[in-house]
Write a structure and sequence with these properties.
EC 3.1.1.29, four-stranded mixed β-sheet, five-stranded mixed β-sheet, 37% helix, alpha+beta, 252 residues
């Protein structure tokens, strides 16, 4: 059984919540809040392209969740299960030089896409974040929009909301959510086939009309059956309003 099963079970419920309920954390113990750190390599001299970095972050997040160490007898299973059972928080931070090399020693997986690198780390309590992570900045750097060209065929599509502005860090967290939700609804054979590609996916910003036609929030179960489409709905702790749909993912 995949560690993502609880996510699949509550997907439609989450999309149906009133917007104000998505940000309600009254049932949480602050000392037990858990998050997955996603580290984005952003060297000053050679910054990556925005799209490639988001694609690397999206792949890295799901690679951790579907790694063999995440299976029931694996060393990563309990930390991942504790995280997925609660709110799926990710915190994207930027690193370069020695700081980037330091996080390679922490449990996680690094993915490279077209020269851009991102490393998703094993989730844990926010209060217990190692110094190699806590010293990294969350905000302060941005990457310009790019023109990535046509999306490759046969890989999942991650579509960013064209009506919502997000920093590269916020976007990295959101596309990581998208690959997790998508994988939670795929069957075992489909997940294995995706893993064979290194969890390759495409990140694009569609025209507003395309976004609105695909957005599954009114009928999440039907949209999945008909079109293989899922949505990320954000709690609204940072940058966007509570209940905002930030990313639509479509199976390859």
């Amino acid at each position: 059984m995949s560690v993502l099963e609880p996510l699949a079970a509550r997907y439609a419920y989450w999309l149906g919540l009133p917007a104000e309920s998505t940000v309600d954390t009254s049932d949480e113990d602050p000392a037990e809040v858990r998050a997955m750190p996603v580290i984005l390599r952003m060297e000053r001299a050679e910054p990556p392209s925005r799209t490639a970095l988001l694609e690397a972050a999206a792949a890295a997040a799901i690679a951790v969740c579907l790694d063999e160490r995440a299976e029931p007898e694996g060393e990563w299973h309990e930390p991942l299960k504790a995280w997925v059972d609660g709110r799926i928080r990710k915190v994207a931070r930027r690193a370069r030089g020695a700081h980037w090399q330091a996080v390679q020693e922490l449990p996680g997986i690094t993915i490279e896409v077209d020269g851009a690198e991102a490393r998703a780390l094993l989730p844990g309590r926010v209060t217990d974040a190692p110094k190699e992570v806590s010293r990294l900045q969350i905000s302060g750097s941005e990457l310009p929009a790019d023109e990535p060209g046509p999306a490759p065929e046969g890989v999942p599509r991650l579509l960013l909301n064209p009506e919502v502005s997000m920093t590269v860090g916020k976007g990295a967290a959101q596309v990581g959510h998208a690959t997790m939700i998508l994988a939670s609804l795929l069957d075992e054979a489909e997940r294995a086939a995706w893993a064979e590609t290194g969890f390759r996916c495409s990140v694009r910003t569609p025209p507003v009309a395309v976004w609105k036609a695909l957005c599954p929030i009114e009928d999440p179960e039907g949209s999945w059956r008909r079109d293989g489409v899922v949505a990320v709905r954000d709690a609204g702790f940072t940058e966007v309003d509570p209940g905002t749909v930030t990313v639509i993912a479509q199976r390859g």
